[in-house]
Amino acid sequence: MVLPNNLKADEYHPFYGTYVKLVQNAPLNDTLGQGKKRFVDFLQAIPIEKYPYRYAENKWSVAELVLHIIDAERVFQYRALRFARNDATPLQGFDQDCYVPESNAGKRTKDSIIWEYETVRNATISLFGSFEPEALLRKGLASGSPMSVRALGFVICGHQMHHQKILEERYL
Asked: Which residues form the DinB-like domain (predicted)?
């Protein structure tokens, strides 16, 4: 059973510890599925008028922040796939600030954003569900640091939780 408390310090960069620490000590597949349900319920409860809202100048809107979560999950999925398949090619980081303007968040509907989130999370659940136990233990280099496949799963969950907390505290 893949649990966050089983992760070792050499499975992820300390930066990602912020996200991993937010995740309850529950199996990865349960955490991904329950996180999806909670986040979809949360997004649906946000009034549509709030999606373009920014709490300060030069901060992302609610829609942009949700699309950032989606984009980051896709990047983490890709890393997990590469490492699980034993691809040892080091992976570069990504500049999240370049992604946001290209997301066209201001032209998207609330429903389309929620649908995309659900679709991406379902793909994450399917991807991690396809990995054999030994594949989950494999590591690769991302942004110059080692990262295990199983750690990436919990980073995905914690990253979403981190940003949901920001939405609750600063946007709503």
From this structure: 35-165
Tens digit of each residue's pLDDT (9 = 90 or more) over 126-148:
999 999 999 999 999 999 999 99
d(CA 30, CA 12) in angstroms, rounded, equals 21
Query: What gap in Å lies between CA 171 and CA 40, rounded to an integer?
Result: 17
Structure tokens at 106: 């201001």
Beta bridge partners, 95, equal: none
CA–CA dist 77, 141 (Å, integer): 14
CA distance 57 to 129: 41
Rounded to 5 degrees, what are φ and ψ at 140? -145, 180
Can you tell me which residue has the tokens 């990253």? Answer: 159
**Displacement of CA 51 from its chain's centroid (Å):** 19
The structural domains of the chain, with segments of one domain joined by +, span 4-171
User: What distance lies between CA 105 and its chain's CA centroid?
Assistant: 18
- Name which CATH class applies to 4-171: mainly alpha
Share of the chain above pLDDT 70, in %: 100
